[in-house]
Amino acid sequence: MEYFNNSSETDKQNFLPAELREKDEFVNGRPKFKEPFWIFGYGSLCWNPGFEYQQSVTGYVKGFSRRFWQGNTTHRGTDSKPGRVATLVEDKEGVTWGKAFLVAADDHSALPYLTNRECQLGGYRTYTVHFHPKSLYFPTNHSHTSNHLHSSTFPHSISQKDAVLYIAVPENRHWLGAAPLPEIAKQILECRGASGSNVEYLLRLADFMREEVPEALDEHLFSLERLVRKFACDMKICLQTLMVDNRVGPSQVREGQSQEEEKVSSLQFASRIPDKKLRCVNM
Asked: Which residue is catalytic, options 118, 200, 215, 261?
């Protein structure tokens, strides 16, 4: 994994991974690439990328586990009540599932958009990692029930790709760190920001995992989901009212579609949550 500090506003190239950065090749101050590149998301990018892309592929990165240890004061919380969103922590046996997006070489907006969304507002830093498509993990008619497997489980394949990845580390100003799961769940249930409730972030991510990778288990994520649903029921809170998403994102291509085929908004593409999962728990 390679890390690039993007906190400096004076160095306009710092947010770019070395593999993607081309010295002295910029168009109107923005980077120019010779080949398409991948961006890997494991949080809200899975269901609301917010940028144009050519293709999306569900898959995983190794050596990390997902944790709701990063605070958020813009998208899913406020300065007085920060929400909790996902980051990755190093874990030698860990596997984190998400979605990779292929961005066109001549796209000059995706990375600046993500630099603002993830780094300047969110407190994340930019890395590059190896991304592996889902097909490399699960053999036909066989599933795993843990996100911690020995490295011998993973077949070596030239299909792995280098991808841009955003991770929050303890040094950033929004870091909240570990806490008992019930405390994290209650914080998530209480917070909301400009992009919506913290609950929506958690539940949509859990639904993404169930729909895209039903074979996998993310104990941290699903434990938080169960606790949030329980606390909501105890407090007579209707979760459906917290799932409202009225944002209109840019057009994006469905997985498997060509660029010429019909495009859909980020909400249409990524928020296909069955009604039964949005039922009111006010019992």
From this structure: 118
- Is residue 81 classed as helix, strand or coil in its secondary structure? coil
Structure tokens belonging to residue 110 = 């995706």
What is the rounded distance in angstroms from the CA atom of residue 94 to the CA atom of residue 154? Answer: 12
Cα–Cα distances (Å) from 66 to 85, 132, 230, 242, in that order, read: 10, 16, 22, 23
Spell out, as residue ranges, where the chain has pLDDT lower than 70.
1-33, 138-158, 244-283
* Distance from C-alpha of 182 to C-alpha of 173, rounded to nearest angstrom: 23
Distance CA 184, CA 283 (A): 23
Kindly provide the residue ranges of all beta strands, DSSP E only, lying in 156-280, ordered along the sequence: 161-167, 192-193, 196-197
The answer to whether 211 is a known catalytic residue is no
Give the E-state strand segments of the chain in sequence order: 2-4, 26-27, 30-31, 37-41, 55-72, 83-103, 125-133, 161-167, 192-193, 196-197
Residue partners of 123: CB distance under 8 A and separation at least 6: 70, 71, 168, 172, 173, 174, 175
Give residues with Cβ within 8 angstroms of 154, minimum separation 6: 62, 132, 136, 137
Label the pairing between strands 161-167 and 37-41: parallel
Instruction: Report the alpha-carbon distance of residue 84 to residue 72 in Å, rounded.
Output: 6
Q: Which two tokens stand for residue 14?
A: 């710092």
| pLDDT tens column, 215-257 | 998 999 999 999 999 999 999 999 988 986 544 333 344 344 3
